[in-house]
Amino acid sequence: MLGTSGVGKTAFMLGMYARMRESINGFTFAASDLDEDLMLSQSWDNLVYKTGQERWPAPNDDTVQRYQFDFNYAFDKLMTFTWLDYRGNALRSFSDAQDTYEIFNALADSTSIFVCVDGGLWADDTPNQTRGEQRDSIRRMNYILTQMYQQTRRKVPIVLVVTKCDKFQNQPPKSDKYDTIFDEIRDELQKKYFSPLFVKNSGWLTMVTFVTLGSDIHEDPDNANIEPNEGVYQPVAFAIYSVFADMARAEEATIEESEADAADREARATKLRDEWFGLGSWFNQGKINDLVTTPDETIDATRLESIQTNLQEIATSLISNSHIYFSGERISADA
Ligand SMILES: Nc1nc2c(ncn2[C@@H]2O[C@H](COP(=O)(O)OP(=O)(O)OP(=O)(O)O)[C@@H](O)[C@H]2O)c(=O)[nH]1
Ligand SMILES: [Mg+2]
After folding, report:
1. Burial track 133-151 (b if 16+ CB lie within 10 A, e otherwise)
2. pLDDT tens across 181-196, in order?
3. What ranges do the domains of the chain cover?
4. Could you tell which of 1, 2, 7 is best to mutate to test the pocket of ligand 1, judged by most ligand atoms within 8 Å of the CB?
């Protein structure tokens, strides 16, 4: 997760966890650690039941928090993943700060990156200075993504998470080219703020999603009802989807390789049988036997099937109406 201080990283994570604990079409999350589950749910209860400033999580300190979550379907564990939460200021600190160093290392190893952009950037009542800082934080995150890619050469899936979308959701779009402000913002993210991720043939897989912990929070952050939208769980569902997609691709490649290998072995055996004026079957029997005996490592086709079933379930249940782009073209996960 990338995002400067106050963008709403911790609130987003709490919302994600609370929403997924309730279960969605058979899918749930559970913190792998009992105490972590308790801690996260206490922070969530503060948000829901307390009022005033004490309802919101305190800004993170310079200890990087790692939360391990199990992703379950019908209570069966499908995958375990780690979520990092940290003080956003670490992204603006020099690289010798311990947490900055830790965050950059974790980013380089991660299977997907959530880039949090403050939705206040599009709210009419945001002061110009704040807007300038928010733009600056976008530039910093682009810089970090550039460094990350140039060092690792890995194109991990990226989720652009626009937080606090309650702040602008009732505003009309500024241009009548767009039906809603959400369309307008998606376009701005693609053309203006994060255009490298949407370049044709670039190979970047990117999701754009909008998150709010409640549609009235902008009016009364201290008392408004907490009711997160579906944006809170879509990023993580997408991240898990991408891991399963990679697994399916690897499994398919193994199967194809082994099929090609089998066809090749059979062709070589046929050639040996035809040698020696038709006596090849007898003359070459040892070699032929070696070729037609199935290799030890058998291919587990049911494994691929079960990965594909998981993929399909996640696509239809959790991310079917989300905005996902590959090399700038919108694609559908459940096609
Ligand atoms: N309007 C609105 N405000 C929100 C929402 N989520 C969070 N906030 C506000 O944003 C503040 C910061 O949220 P945090 O989640 O603590 O931000 P953070 O990115 O974790 O900040 P650091 O820990 O300092 O890096 C909160 O105290 C709330 O006032 C939301 O959905 N809508
Ligand atoms: Mg925080």
Report:
1. ebeebbeebbebbeebeee
2. 999 999 999 999 999 9
3. 9-236, 246-318
4. 7
